[in-house]
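Data availability (excerpt). The following record was deposited with the supplementary files.
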Amino acid sequence: MASGSQTPADIYSIARRDGYWHIMLIQVKSSKVKDNIYELSATEIKQFSELAKLIKSEISNCDILEDYKKKPIIITTGYAGVLSIETNKTLQHRLTKAKAYKLFKMNATNLDFSIINEKLITSHKLGLK
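Predicted structure:
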């Protein structure tokens, strides 16, 4: 797990997209100082990838997910850097950085990744321009 983390992924998102399921795992880091927002190290990104691989293997091995074992599934990992702004009355959070790390595929040989890659990159921007 990344420094200061309680869980390996802070956000787990599942969406049905054009002909495939997308499982998006996001590690969120925040700070009250923009320049101090922690970014994952290469080792932490590798460990995060291990979580994605575990999820991929569990889909294949889990009886409750039988209906999905043969469906196209893409699992991606990514990062969100958040600036926390505290005033006397409120606490606000602003997304300042977002990036995709790795992609893992299941049953995806018939998918057109020239189109899908752009959608995956867009989804990991989390609304940032």
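Summary of structural features: The chain has a mean pLDDT of 90.
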